[in-house]
Every structure is written in C-alpha cells, then in structure tokens.
Specification:
Blueprint: H1 15-32, E1 36-37, E2 43-45, H2 46-52, H3 58-62, E3 66-69, E4 77-81, H4 86-95, E5 105-114, E6 126-135, H5 140-156, E7 163-168, H6 172-186, H7 195-203, H8 214-220, H9 223-230, H10 236-251, E8 256-258, E9 270-277, E10 286-292, H11 296-299, E11 307-313, H12 314-320, E12 329-335, H13 338-350, E13 355-357, H14 364-374, E14 375-381, H15 383-388, E15 391-395, E16 401-404, H16 407-415
Parallel strand pairs: 1-5, 7-8, 12-13, 12-14
Antiparallel strand pairs: 2-4, 3-4, 5-6, 6-11, 7-9, 9-10, 10-11, 14-15, 15-16
Helix pairs in contact: 1-5, 5-10, 6-9
Bound molecules: histidyl-adenosine monophosphate.
Histidyl-adenosine monophosphate is lined by residues 84, 86, 115, 117, 123-124, 127, 129, 131, 133, 265-266, 286-291, 293, 309-313, 315-316.
C-alpha cells in the first residue's frame, strides 16, 4: 500500500468543517481590516529563499525541498517548495510594482508550506500557514495593527489564553553592535559550540541565541554571557519605536512579555519581533511568529519599503480550538422513483438547498436510515406522493411528518 509521506497528513471528514471555520474567521478579521487575499505559487526560484530567508537559517540550510527542473525548457532551474510565504509575497510585491499604490499595502494568505523537519506532534513537513504582510509603514502603528490582528483573530476562534512574547532586534546599526558584542563574549567558547553554531558565529551570531543544542544552551546561561546578551544595544530611535508599540499594546489591553532571547529563526527581521505561544501545545508551543523586515524588499531588488507581518501554523491552531460539528444536509429525497428523486434534488440545489438522494436504488427503509444519519429532513416521494403531486416531509430529529402541497410551500416551510 502506498501511504502518505512522513510528516504529511490527509485532512478530510469531520476535520474539514473546523478548517473551513478557521479560514472563514481569518478572512473576516483580515478583510475587515482592509487586507486583500494573495495567492502566490507554491514553488519559487531557490534563490528567493536563499537570499530572502537567509543562508544562516536552518530553513535554508537543512529544511528546503529543492530540486532541479528543466527538461521541457532545456534550461536547468533550481526551484524550491515554499518553506514560508513572506519571501514569496515580497517577490510578488516587487514584481507587480505594488509599491505604486499608496501605502499601506496589505495582504493576507492561507496555504501549504514545506519544511524537511523531523516530524513530531505539531511539526510537519507539509503544514499550513495563515498570515498577513503589511508594507509601507515604518511607524509603530503598523506593528500594533499587526499584533492586534493576530490576537483578534486568535480570539475569534476562541483562543484567548495565549502569551505574546515581544522583543526588538534594533535596526541594522544596533544589530551590528549587538553582533560584535556577542562574538566577543563567545569567542573563548567557540570550540565548545555545536557545529551549526560555529557557522552561525561567522554568518549571523544572533542565530546562536536560538540554538536548541544543550551544550550551547548551557554556555548561553553563563552569567557573564547572559549579562552581555541582556544588555541594551538598542539605539534611541529603536527604543522609542519599541516603547510606543508597548504603549499602544497597553492601551489595547493586549498582554505581552518582553523576551530578550527572542531572535526568530529567519534572517530578515529587524526591530519588532514577536511570537504567540500556548502551553497546551507542548514543545512546539508557537502558534504565531512574526516581525518587522524593513530591509527585505530592497534586498530582493525593490525600492526600500518598511514591512511587518506574521504567520500562524494552522495545524497548531486546529489542535487548540473547539471542533466544529459538521452540518447535516437540509434534505434527503427518499424514493423508489430515481428519476423524480433526481429532478427534485436538482431543483432544490438550484434553490440553494443542500440535498442528497439514493444513488443505489436501495430499499425505502435503507434510504430512510441513511437520511437519518446525514440530513435534517427526509422528503418522501412514494407512489401516492408522485401520483397526487405532494411531498411528505419528515423531520428526522423529531420524527414528525408533514404533508407539503407543492415546491414553493416546501421552500417556505423549510425557511421557517
Ligand atoms: P515561522 O516562525 O517560521 O515564521 O512560522 C510561523 C508559524 O508557522 C510557527 O509559529 C508555527 O505555528 C508554524 N510552523 C512553522 N513550521 C511548522 C511545521 N514544521 N509544522 C507545523 N507548523 C509550523 C514564518 O514563517 C514567517 N514567514 C512569519 C512572518 C510573516 N514574519 C513576517 N511575516
């Protein structure tokens, strides 16, 4: 038997209603705030992620589904299944000159992403993200808008006991100072760091703060190192930006805690970064990750444009929310006269009702049993009903049966 690939999952049956509900809530919340849905391709040029997500990240170094294609076009191209969607949205923003519209330009998305990670609860190789990206605003109003929409959306699906962790990485200037200090303090421990961190030390030392290796963690916990990490490297302008954001969040009663160790796993961030976590999820506790990426548009060839956004793992949201009970269909047409049953079903569907009928010419009682499981009402079309032109309508919850004179009355009765 051919099975689904490790780290992938079929989503079907009762789960679908909850997936739709999550999607509809996202659509509502984001569209009400003026965000437009954007669907970018699932694969992009590998270079987009190498440059966009960053070559010091685990995503680029270990987790990308990358392959060469070119048979048809006779030119080898390296493409990658998108591991995240920020780089793709930025590519699209630049390609379609969306910066010509007056800012802010606001997008939301929902779709599958791919990372070759070790699968475990809450971590898959194909997973879904719902997210937003907001371009063109450097003021902290954009930061608060994005964090507010994240919490509003989570509240809308019944998740309100989550913690927002917040940090500021500063601008490129503050980041340089921070990097240098971290390199200096870690220099004596370089040989003790894991192999990945030895590379990170050269490419992007901030990444070391995110390392899960036990030994690296122990080194980071040393007092003299902690002191340097927790010291303030942020310039006055970035401090002001961060403190304005915090004031807005206080004003909105959005609870947050500042975590100076929060650096995020992607290279494009500057200034505000945040994650929203749930204890209920165990080790994969982040439901949402996001932040500012003011340099990315320019780095990928566009004109300098500040931007901020977030993405949430839909599978993780699914695990946390109360599940939606799938709706029963409005009607099941029970009849031995298949032609009449088909005709009535089509007419009802044309009137926007959900209807099923028996496709197997089963006995009346079998049809009624099936109807009781899947529908709210059975429309009984027996010989008498067909000859005398009426319907017997059975409420499948109460068992009550009513005679209905014609189609119009059927629709009206149901509406009531
Ligand atoms: P990220 O932190 O890599 O950020 O992913 C965001 C969220 O996607 C995570 O918090 C988690 O809920 C979910 N997620 C990530 N990997 C997996 C996985 N293997 N299995 C299940 N869920 C997963 C980004 O992707 C950025 N693009 C977010 C962003 C948007 N920053 C600015 N704009």
């Amino acid at each position: 038997m051919i099975k689904a690939q490790r780290g992938t999952k079929d989503i079907f049956g009762d789960e679908i209603a909850t997936w739709h509900w999550i999607f509809e809530n996202a659509k509502n919340i984001f569209q009400n705030a003026g965000f437009n849905e954007i669907k970018t391709p699932i694969f992009e040029a590998t270079e987009l992620f190498n440059r966009g997500v960053g070559d010091s990240t685990d995503i680029v170094n270990k987790e990308m589904y990358t392959f060469s294609v070119g048979g048809v076009e006779k030119k080898e191209t390296s493409i990658t299944l998108r591991p995240e969607n920020t780089a793709g949205v930025v590519r699209s923003f630049i390609e379609h000159n969306l910066n010509r519209q007056s800012p802010p330009q606001k997008f939301w998305y929902f779709g599958p992403m791919f990372r070759y990670e070790r699968p475990q609860a809450g971590r898959q190789r194909q997973f879904h993200q719902v997210g937003i990206e907001l371009f063109g605003i450097k003021e902290p109003t954009a930061d608060v808008e994005v964090i507010m929409l994240a919490t509003d959306f989570l509240n809308s699906i019944g998740l309100n006991n989550l913690t927002v962790e917040l940090n500021t990485l500063g601008c490129s200037k503050c980041k340089d100072g921070y990097r240098k200090s971290i390199k200096n303090i870690l220099a004596p421990y370089l040989n003790e760091l894991c192999n990945d961190c030895k590379i990170r030390y050269e490419k992007n030392p901030l990444r070391i703060l995110d390392c899960k290796n036990e030994n690296c963690q122990k080194i980071l916990e040393k007092d003299e190192i902690k002191e340097i990490i927790l010291k303030d490297y942020i310039c006055d302008e970035c401090k002001e930006h961060f403190s304005e954001l915090k004031n807005y969040l206080d004003e909105l009663n959005i609870r947050y805690s500042v975590n100076k160790m929060l650096v995020r796993g992607l290279d494009y961030y500057n200034r505000t970064v945040f994650e929203i976590k749930s204890e209920a999820l165990g080790s994969q506790s982040a439901v949402c990750g996001g932040g500012r990426y003011d340099g990315l548009v320019e780095m990928l060839g566009g004109t300098s444009t500040p931007a901020i956004g977030f993405a949430m793992g839909v599978e993780r949201l699914y695990n946390l929310v109360n599940k939606i009970t799938p709706q029963k269909t409005d009607f099941f047409v029970v009849s031995n006269n298949t032609k009449e049953a088909i005709k009535l079903s089509q007419k009802l569907r044309q009137n926007n009702k959900s209807v099923e009928f028996d496709l197997q010419k089963r006995k009346f009682t079998k049809q009624l049993e099936k109807a009781a499981k899947t529908a709210k009402y059975a429309i009984i079309l027996g010989d008498d009903e067909i000859k005398q032109n009426f319907y017997s309508l059975k409420n499948l919850a109460s068992g009550e049966q009513t005679t209905i004179k014609n189609f119009e009355e059927l629709i009206n009765y149901y509406a009531k």
